[in-house]
Design a protein that fits this description.
The chain has 117 residues and is an alpha/beta fold. It is 51% helix and 13% strand. It has a three-stranded parallel β-sheet, with helices on both faces. It is globular.
Length: 117
């Protein structure tokens, strides 16, 4: 899959953002980092893969805390995870997180999630 212009810009912007934030805030909150980002205008939506895993849960919780910085916040997960972690999925939905269910090995499912369907 080719990188889009926005993905490349995001990657460059993320490195610039990290350098700027490290200078201004030795330990910034996620919200401070997002607000200072040179690409925050194009980072209107966030889709997280692995959000219910060991590390992912910390990431999604931090993003939920800063969700006012995003137009849309979503996770991509499998039906098995939805079934096995129903309480967590319901909590995330209650916090305004869009839950996209699909097969990460399916280009069609992943593309649909990126498009917000």
């Amino acid at each position: 899959m080719k990188s889009s212009f926005h993905e490349v810009l995001y990657s460059i912007g993320t490195r610039c953002q990290l350098q700027l934030v490290q200078k201004l805030f030795p330990q910034p909150t996620l919200e401070q980092a997002v607000r200072l980002s040179p690409v925050s205008a194009i980072m209107a939506s966030v889709l997280v893969f692995g959000a219910t895993g060991i590390a992912g849960i910390y990431i999604i919780n931090a993003l939920v805390a800063a969700k006012s910085s995003f137009a849309r916040l979503g996770i991509f997960t499998s039906q098995t995870t939805v079934d096995n972690k129903a309480e967590l999925i319901q909590r995330l939905k209650g916090e305004g997180v869009h839950v996209h269910v699909g097969d990460v090995g399916s280009d069609e499912d992943v593309l649909a999630a990126y498009k917000g369907r």
